[in-house]
Write a structure and sequence with these properties.
Helix content: 55-70%
Largest sheet: 2 strands, antiparallel
CATH superfamily: dinb family like domain
Number of strands: 2
Strand content: under 5%
Radius of gyration: 17 Å
CATH architecture: Up-down Bundle
CATH class: Mainly Alpha
Structural class: mainly alpha
Number of helices: 7
Number of domains: 1
Strand order of the largest sheet: 1-2
Shape: globular
Length: 169
């Protein structure tokens, strides 16, 4: 039985980006309530060699846009990734959601064998089919950054749980 590339991508990206948005709202409220400098949380990491929270959110949004666009065979929009506040991250998530909500199943389904090349022309070039790109690369990358976002916030005392992580499904 074939899977629907659309059903296993866009709705999942939407669900999880909406949960990240809700968690970021709770985080901003937490910072105010606890008199914490928002930048301390935005720059928080689980370990010194990891990327900070702000970058985790940016990369999750980048993967949601990039995977959806590549599966549909359209150009991936370039965003500057220059967000510095909770409001900036909310705007990024909103922009990303608007972009991916524009895709229909007809644009994505049926592209299981579409060739997708990441980092073309470089030593890190990898070739995928549409299905393998989504299942073995795109979704794991996206979920890694969403999960790391959640973990950084939990580690920093934001009162969020599994229901917050899962969002509405």
């Amino acid at each position: 039985m074939a899977i629907s590339l659309y059903a296993t991508s866009v709705p999942l990206f939407k669900q999880m980006l909406n949960s990240v948005s809700a968690i970021l709202t709770k985080t901003a409220e937490h910072a105010v309530a606890k008199n914490i400098d928002p930048n301390a949380i935005l720059q928080a990491r689980l370990f010194p060699d990891m990327l900070p929270l702000i970058r985790q959110v940016q990369i999750a949004a980048d993967f949601a846009r990039g995977v959806s666009a590549r599966l549909a065979g359209v150009e991936v929009p370039k965003y500057e990734d220059n967000e510095q506040t909770f409001a900036d991250l909310q705007a990024l998530i909103s922009k990303t959601l608007s972009f991916i909500e524009g895709f229909t199943p007809a644009q994505i389904d049926g592209n299981e064998e579409r060739q997708i090349i990441t980092r073309p022309g470089t030593p890190k070039e990898k070739k995928f089919t549409g299905q393998s790109y989504l299942l073995s690369y795109g979704l794991p990358q996206f979920y890694f950054h969403v999960t790391t976002t959640y973990a950084i916030l939990r580690h920093n005392g934001v009162e969020v749980g599994k229901r917050d992580y899962m969002g509405t499904y």
